[in-house]
Design brief:
174 residues, alpha+beta, two-stranded antiparallel sheet, 6 strands
């Protein structure tokens, strides 16, 4: 199987409520506005033949708005992919609904199949993406349902302080 990647920049205005900011963002993205960056892509499957939480050297670079048909041997539609291994890059990662569901299933089955840095990234990204309306709350709830089993104190603390952390993102405040 294969998958595609694309990037977009969050172009929120400084003024207005979250709905106005999200509408502005979606309009800017649809016009193709925003800066594109060379983004290092590291990835691991979860419960598949390409599980690798140790390699943080990019396997490819996202240098345009979209790359299509990236092939990963052994990839099937029932194995989740996690990007940004050990959160080496400073960017959010949003997946399609199916991969978010697969990630949630994997966390519920055995959270330790995903590196702790990536569990923290997944929790932060999905909460922030849901807050701005790019991920459904039902998907967020599914992914986060494993949290009672989380035993990493740093991850639990990050999750419990999410609202305080998000205040640093001034463009999110209403």
């Amino acid at each position: 199987d294969s998958f595609s990647l694309k990037q977009s920049q969050f172009l929120f205005p400084k003024e207005g409520n979250i709905t106005a900011k999200l509408n502005h963002y979606q309009a800017e993205v649809s016009k193709g506005n925003g800066h594109m960056w060379d983004i290092p892509i590291t990835m691991s499957t979860v419960g598949g033949p390409n599980d690798d939480w140790n390699t943080t050297t990019p396997s490819l670079w996202l240098t345009t708005a979209e790359l299509t048909d990236i092939t990963l041997s052994g990839l099937t539609s029932d194995i989740p992919i996690v990007l940004n291994v050990r959160r080496m890059g400073y960017f959010l990662v949003n997946y399609d609904e199916k991969n978010w569901k697969l990630i949630g299933d994997a966390l519920a089955r055995n959270k330790d199949d995903i590196h702790p840095y990536n569990r923290a990234q997944i929790l932060f990204d999905i909460q922030l993406l849901a807050k701005i309306g790019l991920v459904e709350n039902e998907t967020k709830s599914h992914v986060m349902s494993y949290l009672p089993e989380e035993d990493n104190e740093a991850i639990k603390e990050m999750d419990s302080n999410f609202d305080r952390i998000v205040k640093w993102y001034k463009w999110l405040s209403d």
